[in-house]
Amino acid sequence: MARSALLNVMVQAVRKAGRGLTRDFGEVENLQVSLKGPGDFVSAADKRSEQVLYEELKKARPAFGFLMEERGEVVGTDENHRWVVDPLDGTTNFLHGIPAFAISVALERAGVPVAGVIYNPVTDELYTAERGGGAFVNDRRLRVAARREMPDCVIATGIPHLGRGDHGAYLGELRQVMANCAGIRRVGSAALDLAYVAAGRFDGFWERGLSPWDTSAGWLMVKEAGGFVSDIDGKERVHETRTIVAGNEEIHRQLLATLARARG
């Protein structure tokens, strides 16, 4: 596949940050499993990854702005372009030595994602997408799954936990979905969930309480793989409502309807 100069910049940046995360991930098992020690270690790994990404992307396009999980918003002189960066999506997995985490970088033009990269450095799976150019994993073209009925489908989700989300509302949604699909999966990284939808591994995905750095690259990935993405109300307000629903056209529609039944 031919990559644009901008996408090559993004790929080089995530690969460089990924080498650091892989090294740090190898040290996790040597840490004393306590709240402070591993927590501080993972926070440091997160910040090191973000710093590498910031430096590499800033060097390539000095005028572009940033929206980053740790650093927040950095306004650039080019108001039309912004990097949206999650340096470590799946922090809890990382902390527990589970190799399901990713770096997610999107480039937005006038608020719309036009390029995205999601990279799991442990498995060396590199997902890339450009608007109008398709989606790929390690240069292999991606297409969303072709299943047409929810009972045949595996649906991914994010589960709220201590101090996060409306547990009661989520359990209502889960009850509806689990009664109407072949299986439910919880990976622990929204970026990977969306990449797996694009790859046809998952047939659908829904989650609440997400931030732009969790979803921007994956949103584009699913779209370029032929899928549909919206917020939980079927609107194009994913960032505003902090909700997302994804799948092929038919499963996206059925999943929206299933979730709506949980809300009465």
List keywords for this structure.
264 residues, alpha+beta, Fructose-1,6-Bisphosphatase, Chain A, domain 1, D-Maltodextrin-Binding Protein, domain 2, 2 domains, eight-stranded mixed sheet, five-stranded mixed sheet, 8 helices, 26% strand, globular
How many strands appear in the DSSP assignment?
Answer: 13
User: How much of the polypeptide forms β-strand, as a percent range?
Assistant: 25-35%
- Helix count from the secondary structure assignment: 8
Question: How large, in whole angstroms, is the Cα Rg?
Answer: 18 Å
Strand order of the largest sheet: 2-1-3-4-5-6-7-8
Family: Belongs to the inositol monophosphatase superfamily.
InterPro entries: IMPase, Inositol_monoP_metal-BS, Inositol_monophosphatase-like, Inositol_monophosphatase_SuhB
Catalytic activity: a myo-inositol phosphate + H2O = myo-inositol + phosphate
Keywords: Hydrolase, Magnesium, Metal-binding
What is the strand and helix layout of this fold?
Layout: H1 5-28, H2 36-60, E1 64-68, E2 72-74, E3 78-89, H3 91-95, E4 102-109, E5 112-120, E6 125-130, E7 134-137, E8 140-141, E9 154-157, H4 167-178, E10 183-185, H5 190-198, E11 204-208, H6 212-224, E12 228-230, H7 238-241, E13 243-247, H8 249-262
Parallel strand pairs: 1-3, 9-10, 9-11
Antiparallel strand pairs: 1-2, 3-4, 4-5, 5-6, 6-7, 7-8, 11-13, 12-13
Helix pairs in contact: 1-2, 4-8, 5-6
What this model shows, in words?
With 264 residues, the protein is α+β, with helices and mostly antiparallel strands. Helices cover 40% and strands 26% of the residues. It folds into two domains: 5-141, Fructose-1,6-Bisphosphatase, Chain A, domain 1, CATH 3.30.540.10; 150-262, D-Maltodextrin-Binding Protein, domain 2. It has helices at 5-28, 36-60, 91-95, 167-178, 190-198, 212-224, 238-241, 249-262; strands spanning 64-68, 72-74, 78-89, 102-109, 112-120, 125-130, 134-137, 140-141, 154-157, 183-185, 204-208, 228-230, 243-247. The strands form two sheets. Strands 2-1-3-4-5-6-7-8 form an eight-stranded mixed sheet, sandwiched between helices. Strands 10-9-11-13-12 form a five-stranded mixed sheet, with helices on both faces. The model is unreliable at 32-37 (pLDDT under 50).
